[in-house]
Amino acid sequence: MNRNALTLTSLAMASALVLSACGDDGATNSDDEEELDPAAQTEDTDGGDGDGDSGEEERIEPSDRETHEAGGPTTRVAVTYDGGVAVLDGATLEVLGEFDVEGFTRVNPAGDGRHFFLTEGESFRLIDGGSWGSPHGDHDHYHTTDPLLTDITVDGPEPGHVVSHDGIGTLFFDGNGEIHSYDLSTLDAETEIDAEVSETDDAHHGVAVVNADGSRFETLADRSGARFLDADGEEVASSEDCPEVHGEAALPDHSLAVGCEDGVLLFDGEEFTKLETGEEFSRIGNLFPHDESPVLLGDYLLDEDRDEPMTSVALVNSETEEIVLADIESPYNFRSLARGPEGEALVMAEDGQLHVIDEETGEHIDQLQVMDEWTEPEEWQQPRPAIRVVDDIAYITEPDAQTIHMVDLTELEIINEAEFDFTPNEIAAVDGRPVEGVSDDFEGDDDEDDHGDHDHDDDDDHDHGDDDHDHDDDDDHDHDHADDEDDEDDN
Q1: Closest alpha carbon to 408 in 135, 87, 7
Q2: What would the pLDDT profile of 379-424 be if each residue is shown by its tens digit?
Q3: Using one digit for the tens of pLDDT, what is the confidence trace for 308-358?
Q4: What is the Cα–Cα distance from 205 to 216, expressed in whole angstroms?
Q5: Chain-centre distance of CA 94, in angstroms?
Q6: 389 CB contacts (<8 Å, ≥6 apart)?
Q7: pLDDT-derived band of residue 23, with 50, 70 and 90 as boundaries?
Q8: H-helix or E-strand containing 472?
Q9: Alpha carbon 396 to chain centroid distance?
Q10: CA 97 remoteness from chain centre
Q11: C-alpha span between 81 and 199 (Å, rounded)
């Protein structure tokens, strides 16, 4: 149930979207109609009623769903919980679709602005978020339909990172080192994914980025660094100067970065550069970029045994090649980090505050009390507060209260929150906008922020595992099947 109504600020934002939308042929719904339609259809189209009866219901065919024209881009938020995954409306936080799943799951944006990948068992499973944009001359048309957990999967042992770059999606399997890449524009709820398969030298907890020309960036099997191969699979450049490599991110100039246990490794398309922290052990396992900033936000672990929590973050400037540290004065973990609309660093710490930090100086700009104090659970799979940002809205989970908060980052205030009958764990969001390199005739429009052509998994939390895939608890969970976190949760 929603506990607070949307503020006037949010309603004004919604109205602006309608005013900026292209007129159709009289079929465009008003804002109120758009809010009501998806929810009204949830009973018949969510694939399950949340009570374990989904197997008794007739499965909804993707093509049977009704499509609605929207006044602007519509955010959809996917949330995992014990026994299921839900897709929410990004403005109202209403549950639009709720689906039963088994076992521990993770969720990441697929990279096309519409779909998610659910990491489920030994596969990546496609979720249609039900919100997308279609380029139309000098502007875009926007549409919505009911969310759907599809039967489309990419199968393999120990599915790990999800990355998108240059219009290409890449899935990495830790269990065999396979890299599955595909054209993001072909993702569809009714079509099997036609992926190109390549592989690293050996299985490991790693990541790969495939480009449109077939060249690729991949981590080394011993996790000592990374290399770049051309379209023929020939090695062009390599570096072994990044022990325990993890946490891939892309910068606005299309250079790539990965975290190391003693700094960050950059690749500019031709050569590698190592940025050192100056500490013998100072693991940067997850990196968070911003579309218009040369600075990466990274977590910063100083205790190799992981007995002491992280309390500082790293601000990695790829232009000056400097690493600035910012003290949060409160513990945080791998799901705590995000970037604000102006590139500011955001940290949802255990003191219950959202800390806002200047990306260049590391100085504290502001903070907002979002929830009560909390303590990170011992196992990385257990729910803990997580944050995801779309434009100037932050979505923050509070598992202890079974609540999700929406924070307006411009005014730094909570503008909406909803309480659920499940405990939210992982969270991901898609904005429903066309993406460069994915949508035909992409030109962008005034509604769209510079989306860029790279989406990592959030790369945020996901360290799924260390090389031997042992499920240690790694604070940064790097979803590391062991000890890395992903780094974005990344994935």
Answers
A1: 7
A2: 888 999 999 999 999 999 999 999 999 999 999 999 999 999 999 9
A3: 999 999 999 999 999 999 999 999 999 999 999 999 999 999 999 999 999
A4: 17
A5: 20
A6: 338, 339, 340, 341, 346, 395, 409, 429
A7: very low
A8: none
A9: 13
A10: 19
A11: 32
Tell me which amino acid residue 462 is: H
Tokens, residue 228: 């770049």
Phi, psi angles (nearest 5°) of residue 9? -60, -45
List b or e across 441-462, with b for residues whose CB sees 16 or more CB atoms inside 10 angstroms.
Answer: ebebbebbeebbbbbbbbbbbb
- For residue 379, the model assigns a pLDDT of 86
Q: Are 169 and 208 in contact (CB under 8 A)?
A: no
pLDDT in tens, 171-230: 999 999 999 999 999 999 999 999 999 999 999 999 999 999 999 999 999 999 999 999
Please give the C-alpha separations between residue 485 and each of 195, 318, 325, 489, in angstroms, as whole numbers: 26, 23, 20, 7
- Of 135, 187, 139, 184, the residue nearest 164 (C-alpha): 184
What Rg value do the Cα atoms of the chain yield, rounded?
21
SS3 for 292-319 is CCCEEEEEEECCCCCCCCEEEEEEEECC
∠ CA 334-336-339, nearest 5°, is 110
With 0-12 / 13-18 / 19 or more C-beta atoms within 10 angstroms meaning exposed / middle / buried, residue 136 is middle
3-class DSSP assignment, residue 174:
coil
Q: CA 115 to CA 141: how far, in whole Å?
A: 17
Give the separation between CA 209 and CA 179, rounded to whole angstroms.
9
| 295-300 and 287-288 strand pairing | antiparallel
Which domains, ranges and CATH numbers included, belong to the chain? 67-203+427-444 (2.40.128), 207-369 (2.130.10.10)
Q: Of 236, 214, 210, 241, which is closest to residue 225 (Cα–Cα)?
A: 241
Tell me how long the chain is: 491
The one-character DSSP state at 59 is P
Distances in Å between the alpha carbon of 461 and those of 45, 114, 213, 379, 452? Answer: 31, 21, 28, 13, 21
Residue 155 β-bridge partners? 123
pTM of the shown model: 0.81
Residue of 202, 186, 323, 185 lying closest to 266 (CA atoms) = 323
Residue listed under structure tokens 């004065």 = 329
CA angle 358, 364, 370 (to 5 degrees): 110
Label residue 11 left, alpha or beta by phi (over 0 means left) and psi (-120 to 50 means alpha).
alpha
